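User: quick one, sequence for these tokens?
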């Protein structure tokens, strides 16, 4: 790697980013424009009907966010508008289709000729997404990116954003190891992606013949995804389909340079462009915010389970570092790695018991105010070390009351119908959320990050470790959660 400072950082390069309106991609676009405005072009894939609609969606959903306030203040609103107009090109398309369904042939030809770097951040991250949707985006979408890359004349690298939890419910030290096509986690089943596609096709035909509602079809396809994931050893549709996407990329990449970034639980920004920016309710936050609102007084974990979290700006920095290291390499370079775990459990572990304390202390000092203007007082949440103990808690404290309410409702000609349905819905939702999040909240593994550490050392040697910091050991978890992440998450809800 022959660079000594930030000046040549991606200068003159044309970068194509999929999933451009997503959480991670927004931070990536902001970072590139802020530290290297002399990038040649940013082609951004946006799900839209045409170029005009893509541009509008990009402006509305990306540029108008608070995320760009630092850059806007740094260079001025007019200069930022000019920079975006000259360098950023939203492309109307959908990752689920061949060539992303791009209809603007002139733009597509330009992309084939000019693209140097492809970053695939498009994904559906819902753990129990419909199996057909998750297959189209996370599996076939990844293959579509690869096939598109093979038609690009000057492409130097593909960076695919996956998840560290393709490992499933792993224990011990989990290596930065790639998948073999057809590999399963339980080693007892045979995984054939074409068979999985046929299962989806047959199920959709079966459901269509039953004349079901859209909601019923959706629930059935969600259940199918979980069933197929469990069959092959994965806990949910998300991790299963992300693993299949990795398999296809690794198997069919041929001579293309491929890097797979596997982050763990992505949390709010640690530092850039400012601390605490987040969008949407993420994995752990679902429980934390429900606790703060007084809707839930428990959390999962035991002293030996890890909550492996990593701030989103560190993930973005790792993506850029991997690109620089790999496309900057020469014939003597030793950067041959394919997989990078972007994680914290190996170097700066965060425990479930820590999260429990952070929740309690934060909402004790900063209580939620309900719609009636009343302060919601929280108690130290109950900690469950297994799903069995959680189900026992539900059956002891909630099911009896639900049964009494059900009986009272029947005897009073459904006078308590709304109360009964609301409580049942909350119980069902708590159980479903707990099942979905269990692999992440009751996790007993730690992620090896030897490849990632070598990448960090390369950035340090090149004096880029400050601008591209992704070292979790610098995080003080109590400060980060109490002063950065939780305030950011609460602010987003409002």
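Assistant:
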């Amino acid at each position: 790697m022959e660079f000594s400072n930030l000046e040549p950082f991606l200068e003159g390069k044309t970068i194509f980013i999929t999933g451009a309106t997503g959480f991670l991609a927004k931070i990536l676009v902001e970072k590139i424009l802020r530290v290297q405005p002399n990038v040649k072009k940013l082609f951004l894939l946006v799900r839209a009907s045409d170029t005009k609609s893509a541009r509008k969606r990009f402006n509305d959903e990306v540029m108008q966010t608070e995320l760009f306030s630092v850059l806007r203040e740094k260079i001025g609103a007019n200069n930022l508008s000019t920079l975006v107009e000259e360098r950023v090109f939203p492309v109307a398309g959908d990752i689920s289709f061949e060539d992303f369904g791009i209809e603007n042939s002139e733009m597509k030809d330009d992309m084939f000729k000019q693209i140097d770097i492809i970053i695939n951040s498009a994904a559906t991250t819902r753990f129990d997404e419909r199996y057909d949707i998750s297959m189209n985006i996370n599996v076939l979408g990844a293959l579509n990116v690869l096939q598109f890359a093979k038609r690009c004349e000057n492409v130097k690298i593909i960076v695919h954003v996956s998840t560290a939890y393709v490992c499933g419910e792993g224990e011990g030290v989990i290596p930065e190891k790639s998948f073999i096509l057809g590999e399963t986690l339980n080693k007892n089943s045979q995984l054939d992606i074409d068979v999985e596609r046929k299962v989806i096709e047959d199920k959709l035909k079966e459901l269509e013949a039953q004349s079901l509602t859209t909601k019923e079809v959706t629930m059935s396809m969600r259940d199918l995804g979980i069933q197929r994931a469990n069959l092959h050893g994965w806990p949910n549709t998300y991790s299963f389909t992300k693993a299949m996407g990795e398999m296809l990329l690794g198997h069919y990449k041929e001579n293309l340079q491929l890097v797979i970034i596997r982050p763990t639980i992505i949390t709010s920004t640690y530092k850039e462009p400012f601390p605490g920016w987040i969008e949407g309710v993420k994995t752990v936050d679902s429980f934390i915010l429900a606790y703060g609102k007084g809707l839930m007084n428990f959390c999962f974990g035991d002293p030996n389970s890890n909550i492996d979290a990593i701030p989103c700006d560190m993930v973005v920095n790792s993506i850029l570092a991997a690109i620089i290291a790999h496309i900057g390499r020469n014939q003597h370079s030793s950067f041959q790695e394919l997989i990078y775990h972007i994680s914290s459990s190996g170097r700066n572990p965060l425990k479930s018991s820590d999260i429990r304390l952070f929740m309690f202390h934060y909402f004790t000092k900063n209580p939620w105010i309900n719609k009636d203007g009343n302060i919601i007082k929280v108690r130290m949440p109950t900690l469950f070390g297994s799903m069995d103990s959680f189900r026992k808690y539900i059956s002891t404290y909630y099911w009896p009351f639900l049964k009494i309410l059900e009986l009272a409702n029947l005897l009073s000609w459904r006078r308590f119908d709304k109360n009964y349905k609301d409580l049942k819905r909350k119980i069902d939702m708590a159980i479903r959320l707990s099942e979905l999040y269990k692999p992440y909240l009751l996790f007993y593994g730690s992620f090896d990050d030897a490849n990632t550490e070598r990448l960090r050392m390369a950035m340090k040697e090149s004096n880029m470790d400050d601008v591209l910091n992704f070292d979790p050991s610098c995080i003080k978890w109590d400060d980060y959660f109490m002063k950065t992440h939780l305030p950011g998450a609460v602010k987003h809800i409002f």
